[in-house]
Design goal:
Helices cover about 45% and strands about 10% of the residues. By secondary structure, it is an alpha/beta fold. It has a 3-stranded parallel beta sheet with strand order 1-2-3. Strands 4-5-8 form a 3-stranded antiparallel beta sheet. The structure holds glutamic acid.
């Protein structure tokens, strides 16, 4: 079987790190098996869906390294959903209901008060043609429900009906269809809820594996029943745990929490975001992977834990720093040039270990090229004057620092921090930074002497 997966966001907001977890799980799964990845916009909710959000989602995925093989929009496929709806209606499996939301609420409250599960009683299925006509005459429009196959012929006598599947993340799963209300597939205004279009698309697009968040487990029971009603084979399902912050709070697209765009704008590397999104809540250690190929190697749906995937948003900064510390010059040269940094490989290798983000190199580029506001305390004036005197002649190389400070130690009796810190502060204006041994040749003789002027 060829693998075809899809990531199916509704373009009603920006995607966050939790959504990227789903996208990456699908992408890595497809890449591991040489399969196809479809980006499908679930945009049947025309009120809330926006083209700008769809564009932003495509951009965010591309930034993460996900290049969909195919892009689909549900809004362009309504005819296919109409055909499927007609098929279900013809089979007597889709029926009109006229209750208002308030009426349904009241019924649910009543059921709860009587200690019964608040499952829809299929009143719509009992309506005669005259009763329907009367509702229509009142100006009511129907919404349409699918009759769950949880009975033996009489839909008013339900029986326990387990729908089971072997979940790629959660193992054996089952949902009792008798515990669920018949799902509404079509709204009063004739638009489709997500359920039916998703199934029709999965069938038409040959989706073999549906990998999505565990908030969809109950939907899966319903969807398997509808796949069968449409005489199609249901795909393989995998429901992964959801990312939550340390205090257990879920992420929301609407709240803009940890959106991929904001992480990108903060100057983080896509791979630190991807590594955190994928490896959190799995049995694999959360560590920065250099590229998606390495992440695909580490990734395994069966290693996804059953409990929620708690993470600390701050972790992404630590992962980012670890990635940047090991980044080869070739991976950053273009970006450095765009930042106006033209120090080449030697500069990058000198400073990367002190960069939490690539853009931090700007601070060190400023230190190398100047001007620098050196700091010299009163107690250190003599040392700095001696340093000016003692700077070895000739080109400054990586050996200069130890020869120079060795000489100064002998001249001044200073050693360790008391010797190195005043020099660092005078030459860079900072107390921390890259190794002075490698920084010194980059600053160059003339600037070094200049910065040691009283
Ligand atoms: N649009 C749905 C969502 O964002 C897709 C769920 C699915 O993958 O089937 O939750």
């Amino acid at each position: 079987m060829t693998t075809t997966v899809r990531f199916a966001p509704s373009p009603t907001g920006h995607i966050h790190i939790g959504n990227s977890r789903t996208a990456l799980f699908n992408w890595l799964y497809a890449k591991k098996s040489g399969g196809t990845f479809i980006l499908r916009f679930d945009d049947t909710d025309t009120e809330r869906s926006r083209a700008e959000f769809a564009d932003a989602i495509a951009t965010d995925l591309q930034w993460l390294g996900i290049n969909p093989d195919r892009i689909e929009r549900q809004s362009a496929r309504v005819e296919s959903y109409d055909l499927a709806a007609e098929k279900l209606k013809a089979a007597g499996l889709l029926y009109p209901c006229y209750e208002t939301p308030e009426e349904l609420d009241r019924r649910r409250s009543r059921a709860r008060a009587l200690g019964r599960p608040p499952v829809y009683d299929r009143a719509g299925l009992k309506l005669t043609n005259d009763e329907r006509a009367a509702f229509e005459a009142e100006g009511r429009r129907p919404h349409w429900r699918f009759v769950l196959p949880n009975h033996d012929g009489d839909p008013f006598v339900t029986r326990r009906t387990e729908v089971s599947w072997e979940d790629l993340c959660r193992g054996a799963q089952s949902v009792d269809l008798a515990s669920l209300s018949d799902p509404v597939l079509i709204r009063e205004d004739g638009t489709y809820l997500y359920t039916l279009p998703s199934i029709v698309d999965d069938i038409d697009m040959g989706v073999s594996h549906v990998i999505r968040g565990e908030d969809h487990v109950a939907n899966t029971g319903v969807q398997i029943a509808i796949f069968e009603a449409l005489e199609a084979k249901a795909p393989v399902f995998g429901h992964h745990n959801l990312l939550t912050t340390r205090d257990g709070e879920g992420l929301s697209k609407r709240k803009g929490a940890l959106s991929i765009g904001s992480l990108r704008d903060a100057g983080l590397e896509p791979m630190s975001v991807a590594s955190l999104a994928v490896l959190t809540g799995t049995s694999h250690a959360v560590e920065p992977m250099a590229d998606l190929e390495a992440l695909a190697e580490a990734f395994d749906l069966a290693s996804v834990s059953r409990s929620s995937a708690k993470f600390d948003p701050e972790e992404v900064n630590g992962l980012n720093a670890r990635l940047v510390h090991d980044m080869p010059y070739t991976a950053v040269s273009g970006r450095l040039t765009r930042l106006g940094i033209v120090g080449g490989e030697a500069f990058w290798l000198a400073v990367r270990g002190n960069c939490g983000k690539v853009a931090d190199a700007q601070v060190y580029w400023q230190i190398v090229t100047g001007p620098v506001e050196g700091i010299v305390g009163d107690d250190d004036q003599d040392l700095i004057a001696a340093a000016r005197e003692a700077l070895p002649d000739g080109d400054i190389t990586e050996e200069t620092w130890s020869a120079w400070t060795g000489d100064l130690k002998a001249r001044t009796g200073r050693k360790g921090k008391a010797l190195f810190m005043p020099l660092r502060k005078a030459l860079t204006g900072l107390e921390h930074g890259p190794d002075m041994k490698v920084l010194l040749p980059l600053i160059g003789r003339q600037s070094v002497l200049q910065r040691l002027q009283p």
